[in-house]
């Protein structure tokens, strides 16, 4: 494909390892773009995908839909669609014809016919226009403004993350996966490590890797039961990967886990959750009837994990059995506890959606944190009771 009157623009930044990057800006008929474009969605079978499913509400003919905007409103898109042709699939060639400045020129672009145009930003605009084209055939010639890059798949994903996280907020569960992919890029420029993969973002990326470990290790009580991004919900699913990632990232805030290999953290968490499963087995068998594997339970138990781990470290027995020992103190009556909901044993009934205490119906991370604190207090009281009896 030959495209004339293309503007090539070089842009750059001063992060370590960042380089001057060419961007090619031009206009192309919608029909041509639609025939070559692909939306690289994440599914369980395409684990490096970064796009989410299209939102039907943004495609409809109502006032908020793209098709409706074109058919009934102004129908103008002044911002360009961002597209990448992967360098590993084909290299584009630019012939300069007029220089407008040190970093701007006009010329002709030659693009191999076999390559795919991956939509980084603008998927709803393109899909909405395709819907409108079915009513107005002339819209096949609708001129789209396109900004094109010729970078590798990693940079394609990086551009998606930058555009969405800084402009209109990509869904968080997918952002975690994008960060996870960045973490695995050992040749990534240093600025990515220093600016994007530190602090909370780095913890989220590592947590996403741990979630994958929990979902695929057959020893894990979560094995095959975590709904991945892009995967339809199934009856056996007990949580979403984004939810579990969020709460494992809380665990990684604790210093004792920050220098630990993610595989090791995953193995310890498998022991921890297997111990929980032994104590409250029906919560796993009939998970929809109980709150243990809901957002509340996942938040509470991951907040409690460092406490249990600390007891096990002190005793020198970081095993499923060691964790079971300390978790079992939650089954003890603790009449000294300040909160009446924690004086009695925390049995499966305590977690039951209908029969459990009112405290399990509260929402919000602050509320979940208080429940975890009260559980930690209950364990400490039960330990003192045991030592007093001895």
Q: What's this entry about, in short?
A:
It is built from 15 helices and ten strands. It is an alpha/beta fold. A hairpin with a 2-residue loop joins strand 5 and strand 6.
Descriptors:
390 residues, eight-stranded mixed beta sheet, 10 strands
Description:
This protein is α/β, with parallel strands linked by helices. The chain folds into two domains: 2-151, no CATH class; 191-389, no CATH class. Helix content is 44%, strand content 15%. The chain has 15 helices and ten strands. The strands form two sheets. An eight-stranded mixed sheet has the order 3-7-4-8-2-1-6-5. The longest helix has 25 residues, at 365-389. The model has no long low-confidence stretch (mean pLDDT 92).
Task: Report the β-strand fraction as a percent range.
Answer: 5-15%
Indicate the low-confidence ranges by residue numbers: none
End-to-end separation in angstroms reads 84 Å
Structural class per helix/strand content? alpha/beta
Name the assembly state: single chain
Cα radius of gyration in angstroms = 26 Å
The percent range for helix content is 40-55%
Output the strand order for the largest sheet: 3-7-4-8-2-1-6-5
H/E order of the elements?
EEHEHEEEEHEHHHHEEHHHHHHHH
- Per DSSP E runs of 2 or more residues, the count of β-strands stands at 10
- How many helices? The count is 15
């Amino acid at each position: 494909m030959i495209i004339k009157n293309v503007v090539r623009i070089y842009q750059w930044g001063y992060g370590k390892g960042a380089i001057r990057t060419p961007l090619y800006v031009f206009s192309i008929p919608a029909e041509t773009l639609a025939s070559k474009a692909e939306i690289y969605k994440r599914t369980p079978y395409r684990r490096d995908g970064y796009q989410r499913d299209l939102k039907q509400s943004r495609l409809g003919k109502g006032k908020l839909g793209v098709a409706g905007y074109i058919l009934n409103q102004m129908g103008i898109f002044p911002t360009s669609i961002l597209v990448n042709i992967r360098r590993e699939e084909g290299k584009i060639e630019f012939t300069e014809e007029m220089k407008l400045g040190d970093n701007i020129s006009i010329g002709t672009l030659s693009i191999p016919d076999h390559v795919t145009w991956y939509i980084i930003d603008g998927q709803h605009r393109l899909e909405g226009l395709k819907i409108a084209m079915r009513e107005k055939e002339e819209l096949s010639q609708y001129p789209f403004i396109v900004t094109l890059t010729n970078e590798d798949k990693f940079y394609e994903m990086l551009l998606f993350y930058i555009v969405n996280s800084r402009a209109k907020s990509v869904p968080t569960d997918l952002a975690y996966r994008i960060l996870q992919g960045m973490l695995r890029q050992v040749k990534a420029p240093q600025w990515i490590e220093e600016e994007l993969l530190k602090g909370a973002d780095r913890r989220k990326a590592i947590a996403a890797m741990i979630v994958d470990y929990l979902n695929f290790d057959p020893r894990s009580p979560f094995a095959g039961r975590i709904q991945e991004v892009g995967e339809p919900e199934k009856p056996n699913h007990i949580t979403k990967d984004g939810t579990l990632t969020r709460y494992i990232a809380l665990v990684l805030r604790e210093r004792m886990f920050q220098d630990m290999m993610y595989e090791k953290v995953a193995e310890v968490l498998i022991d921890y959750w297997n111990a929980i499963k032994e104590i409250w087995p029906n919560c796993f068998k009939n998970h929809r009837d109980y709150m243990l594997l809901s957002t509340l339970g996942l938040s509470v138990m991951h907040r409690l994990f460092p406490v249990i781990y600390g007891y096990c470290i002190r005793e020198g027995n970081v095993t499923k059995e060691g964790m079971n020992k300390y978790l079992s103190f939650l089954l003890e009556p603790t009449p000294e506890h300040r909160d009446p909901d924690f004086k009695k044993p925390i049995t499966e009934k305590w977690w039951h959606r209908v029969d459990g205490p009112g405290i399990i119906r509260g929402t919000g991370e602050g509320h979940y944190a208080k429940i975890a604190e009260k559980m930690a207090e209950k364990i400490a009281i039960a330990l003192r009771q045991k030592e007093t009896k001895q």
